[in-house]
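Dataset card, provenance and construction

Sequences and ligand SMILES were collected as paired inputs. For each pair, a complete structure of the chain with the small molecule in place was predicted and serialized as structure tokens. The example below shows a pair involving zinc ion. Curators did not alter the output after generation; any descriptive sentences attached to a record were derived from the structure itself.
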Amino acid sequence: MKRNTWQREAVRSALGTQMGFVSAQGLHSSLKNSGSHIGLATVYRALADLAQEGEADSLQSPEGESLYRACSLEHHHHLICRSCGLTVEIEADEVEEWARRTAQQHGFSRPEHVVDIFGFCSACVPPVPA
Amino acid sequence: MKRNTWQREAVRSALGTQMGFVSAQGLHSSLKNSGSHIGLATVYRALADLAQEGEADSLQSPEGESLYRACSLEHHHHLICRSCGLTVEIEADEVEEWARRTAQQHGFSRPEHVVDIFGFCSACVPPVPA
DNA sequence: TTGGTATTGAAAATCATTATCAATACACTG
DNA sequence: CAGTGTATTGATAATGATTTTCAATACCAA
Ligand SMILES: [Zn+2]
Ligand SMILES: [Zn+2]
Ligand SMILES: [Zn+2]
Ligand SMILES: [Zn+2]
């Protein structure tokens, strides 16, 4: 059976203090800076569990890293700052409907969609434009 | 200046024969099986270039791998079969507009969005439902 | 307490991707 | 066509994130 350890609680808690998505490595650093002696592998395991159980949302950064965040339970999407990670949860019934309709039109079943927007929040000055 | 090598052409060509997204490793294997002696690093470089120049689309698989595909030039999104990889290009002005509007409403600049739908195509019987 | 077993974590193992760097192949010139 | 400057190649080492190992440890039910 699943056990309760201070480590899991520490990860859950630390994730809650984050403003946006964080990587396992990032959360681990954060925990260490707070004096925790939790192991990196444990953070990876805890985050995977939280995501699995629906307590956390996870997504792949454009660079391919797995990022996690404690989010609301309902299905939603994200507006993420590429610089500071600030995340805004957004609902988009419009998009939900579009995804459903599109999948159906092409005969695809059990559709799941990935819909996230990355940009620079008002507090972050956009780096040198292309 | 940029040079034309058989390697680049081989990658471009091989990518064209794929019906869905492929990883660099996968395309390299495919090329080798066809008798090519192209190097893995070169495939990575060629794919990165093609993506850069807009000749190929790239996205992250749910497992975090970078996948590539020869796609049409205009901005579009994808409907991908989780089983056979079959990919359908879809346009969604509706979503483009929504993404732009949403980013703006929250003060985000230089927005980029990730919008893809994964499901099972009509030719693939959905595996055991959850 | 005690015993059975999840869980932990330091370190090693994976794996995809990138960097090295000497050798090679292009493109252009004469 | 030969000669030159340099972009490209590719075997291999290096990176970096994530996973696995596995002995030590912490949970928790009894
Ligand atoms: Zn979320
Ligand atoms: Zn920001
Ligand atoms: Zn495409
Ligand atoms: Zn299919």
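Derived descriptions for this record:
Residues 40-52 of chain A form the longest helix (13 residues).
The longest strand of chain A covers residues 109-120.
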